[in-house]
């Protein structure tokens, strides 16, 4: 092999490694030192980047001769797949160029030892001797008015291949060639030399499409960028040139909400805005087949924005002053609007950061006091300000939800006026004046993100999962459900019977905007049923909320009716017997059955939703609900035969009934045997106790011989009792009661025929509350109760 086996690291230069994610965003993998190694087995050269902190491997990439590599200034990047790429940003331009030479050499399939030594040793041959071989290109003509046509042809030729683009970029970097071209632009404008201006437009546009980062540094410098914009004004396809420079200098005024004292930040802001303007306005929009044609220009803008965010984040005093002025009551609305818009744009730029960097940034913003400032602007009536503040808060909730939750909980303990931030969000959602409720939808999603248990870190020492839910259900949910409870109150429902079709009646759920709001509320409540089982179940039972929700089935808006059904369906999906009992006792399936019957034979979403609800109960065999539906509504639903759902429910009901009857038959004799054995023991104990008491009463008048006799008798009784305890208790005989065997027991007094029916020794053993009713199959119904009287207070009845 021609590759040397040893590998050396370039310790004098470190690089940053980026990767392209599916979201089309470049994310930094780490910073470290670059090195190379040749693997004999793979017969290939690999680039390695190891962390400068712990020497861990950040990147190991094979230089693949079949892969397309690109170089822009100090950036080398390549794409492994359509939406997956890697980029290496070099600190040193010379090292970057040598690595690029190595990649080009691999692509030419002519590796040599000298090339590898050039990569590893900075003191090797001069950069000009290592220039990649390219197609023959003439030297650049002198920058003269008469040569502009030749320069246009040369630039056009240089765009034909990646290698030619690389050589042309190197030639343009020499001897301030671009600066000389821009000086010719001023000459042409002063002379009103239109043809020359058209040539310069083509030249500058061609240079931009070289997509070279080193050339961008020249073109977008403070001295050149406005001249570049000027050249692009003179498009030959336009009858009159566009006045872009006038717009950028006069119309697009740079407004400093807080004076920026750092000149570097100011310059970076100006540059970023103007480069973005060139990219979006002056250059033609690439087709879907040319998405990467200006990838380096996009990266240039991206890194500028990232650098701006980092520079502003490091300036704590500047951001603290922004939040202080937002909180200041003396700040006028115009000033506060500018502050909010600045903060929103800052947050938009922050989306370009890596996920961990975004979390760190928003944590810093909360520490500097952004949340109290947002609470003030969220309470303003200006829709634009409130919308921008909502966007900022949404970013905070997305990346640092537990910090926002902690702030809201602390408010409940510290707020003097009782106005909580959460309730303010709910209020603005309910009072949204937009007919389409665009702001309310945004706020509802924000609340949903806050209430998502996944956003509540269970191990976080400051915010446990249950803590925020306790806070919300104690302080906020009554405000959230207030419109629902108001729209379904008895007064409104009675009024709806007379004026329900009045679209201007905002308290009526037939009003479109009110129905939209109620649908949003139900959407979030349905989410709560799914994720907050205990808390929302308690609230539903306490407020009888499902009954109120089912009133909405009478709405003329199908989307609202479906939301109400979805809420009930989610409750059934819990398979919670307490919720099932609540629905059975409240007869809450009746409105659903009525809605199905009112829908008639229409095959629509309402019909499908109701059928699916009953089908779920059948498939999951929720026995309590199956029994309730069949017993209460089967006769009504029996005629629906286009689906087998209700017949299936009847079959499930009959199967369960049969199982219950069989169980009742098997348990009946066993239970009664235990009960009567216990009853016999109790009565015998009472008789013995009574007998002994009678003997004790006669002891006082006995003679000594009688006393001796009594002592002898007592001993014999005790001996007999001990003997009886050793023997098995003989059960009394069984008699038949209603076709079933029942064990009966009669006291001694009853056997002699001297018993009083009201005497305590009489035993009324069985009392069925429904003796005269028999089941159709002749078996005892499973739900009957067996009442045992006069035996023992603890055996008053037994449920079978």
Automatic annotation (TrEMBL):
Domain Serine/threonine-protein phosphatase 4 regulatory subunit 3-like central, which positions?
A: 150-655
Q: Which GO terms describe its cellular component?
A: nucleoplasm; protein phosphatase 4 complex
Domain named PP4R3 EVH1-like: residues:
15-107
Q: Where is this region: Disordered?
A: 697-800
Pfam families per the record? EVH1_PP4R3, PP4R3
The record's listing under InterPro entries reads: ARM-type_fold, EVH1_PP4R3, P4R3-like_central_dom, PH-like_dom_sf, PP4R3-like
GO MF terms, alphabetically ordered: protein phosphatase activator activity
Instruction: Tell me which Gene Ontology terms the entry assigns under biological process.
Output: DNA damage response
Q: Where is the composition biased (Polar residues)?
A: 737-761
Q: Where is the composition biased (Low complexity)?
A: 791-800
Compositional bias segments (type: Basic and acidic residues): 709-731, 770-782
* Gene3D superfamilies linked to this entry: Pleckstrin-homology domain (PH domain)/Phosphotyrosine-binding domain (PTB)
Domain of life, source organism? Eukaryota
SUPFAM superfamilies reported in the protein's UniProt record: ARM repeat, PH domain-like
Family statement drawn from the similarity comment of this UniProt entry: Belongs to the SMEK family.
Q: What is this protein called?
A: Protein phosphatase 4 regulatory subunit 3C
Q: What is the lineage of its organism?
A: Eukaryota, Metazoa, Chordata, Craniata, Vertebrata
The gene from which this protein is expressed is PPP4R3C
């Amino acid at each position: 092999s021609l590759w040397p086996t040893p590998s050396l690291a370039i310790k004098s230069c470190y690089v940053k490694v980026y990767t392209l994610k599916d979201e089309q965003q470049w994310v930094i993998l780490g910073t470290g030192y670059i090195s190379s190694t040749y693997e004999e087995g793979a017969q290939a050269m690999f680039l390695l980047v190891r962390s400068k902190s712990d020497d861990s491997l950040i990147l190991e990439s094979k230089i693949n001769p079949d892969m397309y590599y690109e170089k822009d200034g100090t950036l080398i990047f390549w794409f492994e797949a359509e939406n997956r790429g890697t980029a290496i940003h070099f600190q040193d331009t010379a090292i970057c160029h040598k690595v690029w030479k190595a990649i080009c050499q691999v692509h030419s399939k002519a590796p040599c030892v000298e090339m590898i030594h050039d990569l590893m040793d900075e003191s090797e041959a001069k950069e000009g001797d290592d220039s990649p071989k390219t197609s023959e290109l003439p030297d650049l003509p002198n920058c003269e008015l008469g040569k502009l046509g030749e320069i246009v042809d040369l630039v056009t030729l240089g765009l034909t291949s990646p290698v030619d683009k690389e050589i042309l970029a190197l030639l343009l970097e020499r001897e301030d060639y671009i600066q000389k071209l821009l000086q010719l632009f001023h000459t042409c404008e002063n002379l009103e030399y239109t043809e020359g201006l058209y040539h310069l437009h083509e030249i500058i546009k061609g240079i931009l499409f070289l997509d070279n980062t080193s050339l961008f540094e020249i073109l977008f410098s403070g001295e050149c960028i406005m001249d570049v914009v000027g050249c692009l004004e003179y498009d030959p396809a336009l009858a009159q040139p566009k006045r872009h420079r006038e717009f950028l200098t006069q119309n697009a005024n740079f407004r400093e909400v807080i004076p920026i004292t750092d000149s570097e930040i100011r310059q970076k802001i100006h540059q970023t805005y103007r480069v973005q303007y060139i990219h979006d306005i002056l250059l033609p929009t690439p087709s879907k087949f040319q998405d990467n044609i200006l990838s380096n220009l996009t990266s240039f803008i991206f890194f500028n924005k990232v650098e701006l965010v980092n520079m502003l984040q490091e300036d704590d005093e500047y951001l603290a002053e922004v939040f202080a002025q937002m909180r200041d009551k003396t700040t006028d609305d115009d000033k506060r609007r500018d502050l909010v818009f600045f903060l929103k744009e800052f947050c938009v730029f922050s989306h370009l950061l890596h996920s961990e960097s975004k979390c760190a940034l928003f944590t810093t913003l909360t520490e500097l006091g952004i949340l109290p400032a947002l609470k003030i602007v969220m309470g303003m009536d200006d829709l634009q300000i409130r919308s921008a503040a909502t966007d900022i808060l949404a970013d905070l909730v997305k990346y640092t939800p537990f910090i926002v939750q902690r702030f809201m909980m602390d408010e409940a303990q510290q707020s003097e006026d009782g106005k909580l931030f959460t309730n303010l969000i709910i209020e603005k959602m309910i009072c949204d004046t937009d007919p389409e409720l665009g702001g309310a939808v945004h706020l509802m999603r924000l609340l949903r993100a806050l209430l998502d248990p996944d956003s509540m870190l269970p191990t976080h020492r400051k915010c446990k999962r249950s803590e925020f839910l306790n806070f919300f259900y104690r302080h906020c949910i009554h405000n959230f459900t207030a419109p629902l409870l108001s729209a379904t109150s008895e007064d409104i429902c009675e009024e709806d019977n007379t004026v329900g079709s009045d679209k201007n009646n905002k308290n009526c759920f037939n009003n479109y905007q009110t129905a939209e709001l109620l649908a949003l509320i139900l959407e979030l409540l349905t989410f709560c049923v799914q994720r907050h089982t205990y808390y929302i179940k308690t609230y539903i039972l306490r407020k009888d909320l499902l009954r109120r929700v089912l009133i909405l089935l009478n709405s003329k808006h199908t989307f609202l009716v479906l939301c109400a059904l979805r809420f009930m369906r989610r409750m059934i999906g819990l398979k919670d017997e307490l919720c099932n009992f609540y629905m059975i006792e409240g007869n809450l399936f009746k409105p659903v059955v009525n809605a199905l019957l009112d829908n008639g034979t229409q095959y629509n979403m309402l019909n499908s939703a109701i059928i699916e609800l009953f089908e779920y109960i059948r498939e999951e065999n929720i026995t309590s609900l199956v029994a309730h539906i069949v017993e209460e509504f089967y006769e009504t639903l029996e005629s629906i035969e286009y689906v087998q759902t209700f017949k299936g429910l009847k079959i499930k009901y009959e199967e369960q009934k049969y199982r219950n009857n069989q169980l009742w038959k098997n348990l009946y004799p066993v239970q009664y045997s235990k009960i009567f054995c216990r009853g016999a023991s109790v009565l015998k104990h009472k008789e013995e106790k009574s007998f002994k008491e009678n003997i004790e009463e006669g002891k006082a008048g006995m003679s000594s011989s009688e006393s001796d006799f009594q002592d002898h008798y007592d001993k014999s009784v005790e001996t007999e009792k001990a003997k009886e305890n050793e023997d098995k208790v003989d059960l009394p005989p069984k008699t038949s009661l209603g076709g079933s065997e029942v064990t009966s027991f009669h006291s001694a007094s009853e056997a002699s025929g001297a018993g009083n029916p009201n005497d305590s020794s009489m035993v009324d053993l069985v009392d069925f509350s429904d003796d005269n009713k028999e089941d159709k199959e002749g078996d005892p119904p499973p739900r009957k109760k067996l009442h045992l009287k006069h035996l023992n207070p603890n055996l008053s009845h037994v449920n079978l």
